[in-house]
Amino acid sequence: MQTPDYQRLDRAHHLHPFTDFKALGEEGSRIIERAEGVYIHDAEGDRILDGMAGLWCVNLGYGREELVAAATEQLHRLPYYNNFFKTTHPPAVKLAEKLCALAPAHLNHVFFTGSGSEANDTVLRMVRRYWALKGKPEKQWVIGRENGYHGSTVAGMSLGGMAPMHGQGGPGVPKIAHVRQPYWFQEGRTAGQDPEAFGRECAAALEAKILELGEEAVAAFIAEPVQGAGGAIIPPASYWPAVKAVLEKYDILLVVDEVICGFGRLGEWFGSLHYGLEPDMMPIAKGLSSGYLPIGGVLVGDRVAETLIEEGGEFFHGFTYSGHPACAAVALRNLELMEAEGVVERVRDDVGPYLAERWTALADHPLVGEARSLGLIGALELVDPATGERFDSARGVGPLCRDLCFAGGLVMRSVGDTMIISPPLVISHAEIDELMEKARAALDATLARLATPTTPKQEESLP
Ligand code: PMP
Questions:
Q1: Which of 186, 194, 249, 413 is the most buried (most CB within 10 A)?
Q2: b/e map of 273-294 (b: 16 or more CB within 10 Å)?
Q3: Which tens digits make up the pLDDT trace of 373-418?
Q4: Do residues 293 and 85 make contact, with C-beta atoms less than 8 angstroms apart?
Q5: Which residue, by CA, sits nearest to atom 1 of ligand 1?
Q6: CB–CB of 222/408 below 8 Å?
Q7: Ligand 1: distance of its center to the CA of 285 in Å?
Q8: Residue 167 CB neighbours (<10 A)
Q9: Residue 117: CB within 6 Å of ligand 1?
Q10: Domain boundaries, the chain
């Protein structure tokens, strides 16, 4: 089959995630056929540098034979068995032990799921169950953040603060509220505020929401260490310490969604370690298996785990694929390889600083209002060179830049007019240089195109 054949069948039968089905049908999808290292290859024979590690997940890069072997061996030995009915299997047990050894010291249990969304559904059920067992069943509200992303199941969507998602499919889960995000470029800079004062103000907004709902009614706060899908938003340094203090003051659980930041993205095993957080729960997925097979989970802190174990009786929750043996075997091998190769330390001490140096230099481009990065996640804020302010979003400048970038051989995401990268953690210096050249070329091409009329708004996807 050739590209047009795939496109025809795709249009006829396949509803893609986060996609305007009709627009994509008219345009035709790009067929990705194979990949190796940090490169993907399409059916037309183009080689493209994957600046997004798939969907923030292929941390060890493509084509790792060790992960293929781990899956194959496990599929031969035991392709499936569940963890219900008082049974388990070696890969799930070993992975649980490994994860708890890597996580902050007080997180000593894990509940496995098939994805990040299922992990956040699990969080919601566990949080409310915990407080009920503590004799405080009225503690049910969970506070998330505007423009936060926690998945696409009904609970994941409700915990997240993505307005377009809330606008579809009717009401979400009750008793979930949202507070403002620590997005200085969008909300603080425009108000002329110092970033650190802005960070404290965002934490104060959380306190105000707790008081509005009543502290006796608030169960937990959920947030990503660095917001990923929202636009690679790195909070001001003042933000997390101030949030921590608020949650301690009112005895509210902290849930840190590590689905993107976990497993080395910020140069530590977990974003919580980078920011010195002590979460009660950490949803995980994506980089856990470098995306080779689907697996997620929730790491659970001692106070919640002990209550569920000692006082809970049966917890009526779980998935057919909770701790799937092949997925768990691949995840375990992935973590072992990351340790053996010093991948996390390399992000922190070598490629992270190298990327930061090269990436922030893009701030001299006339289209770039801010260039920020931390570890191997980065963002560029596109602005109108004439004013230094954001473009009218209807002009679709970010999606235009993304498409030009893809055409130039680099996957860089757009979230509105924020351009994002999150490359495989194994990226080399030479590949970072190539990424920079291609990103700059895409900015130049975007600038040139803006001088010509009509840039239709294109499809944007969130996660
Ligand atoms: N949490 C965060 C922070 C995410 O970025 C995502 C996915 N992008 C999810 C949860 C949901 O994960 P999944 O798509 O595996 O359900």
A1: 413
A2: bbbebebbbbbbbbbbbbbbbb
A3: 999 999 999 999 999 999 999 999 999 999 999 999 999 999 999 9
A4: no
A5: 150
A6: no
A7: 7
A8: 7
A9: yes
A10: 31-63+342-449, 66-340
Identify the pLDDT of residue 169. Answer: 87
Cβ-based neighbours of 134, under 8 Å, separated by 6 or more? 307
Sequence-distant (6+) residues with CB within 8 A of 275 are 225, 240
- Number of separate helices (H) and strands (E) present in the chain: 17, 15
Instruction: Answer whether 259 contacts ligand 1 (Cβ < 6 A).
Output: yes
The string of pLDDT tens digits covering residues 118-175 is 999 999 999 999 999 999 999 999 999 999 999 999 999 999 999 999 999 889 999 9
Per-residue confidence (pLDDT) for residue 96, from 0 to 100: 98
191: pLDDT strictly greater than 90? no
The terminus-to-terminus CA distance of the chain in angstroms comes to 30
Inform me whether the pLDDT recorded for 457 exceeds 60. Answer: no
Q: Determine whether the shortest distance from the Cβ of 115 to ligand 1 is under 6 A.
A: yes
Q: Which residues have CB under 8 Å from 113's CB, separation 6+? A: 119, 121, 122, 285, 295, 296, 297, 298, 319, 321, 322
Q: Which atom belonging to ligand 1 lies closest to the Cα atom of 462? A: 8
Choice from 58, 117, 222, 272 to test ligand 1 binding pocket (greatest atom count within 8 A of CB) = 117
In short, whether 151's Cβ falls inside 6 Å of ligand 1 is yes
| Rounded percentage of the chain residues whose pLDDT exceeds 90 | 96
What is the pLDDT at residue 165?
A: 97
Taking the domain 66-340, which CATH number applies? 3.40.640.10
Is the pLDDT assigned to residue 461 strictly greater than 50? Answer: no
Ligand 1: does its nearest atom lie under 6 Å from the Cβ of 229?
Answer: yes
Phi, psi values for residue 81, rounded to 5°: -155, 155
287 lines ligand 1 (CB under 6 A): no
Quote the ligand 1 centre to 150 CA distance (angstroms). 5
Partnered with residue 40 across adjacent β-strands are: 35, 48
- Choose the residue to mutate in 16, 55, 56, 149 for probing ligand 1, maximizing ligand atoms within 8 Å of C-beta: 149
Distance, CA of 258 to chain centre: 7
Quote the pTM value: 0.97
The CATH code that applies to domain 31-63+342-449 is 3.90.1150.10
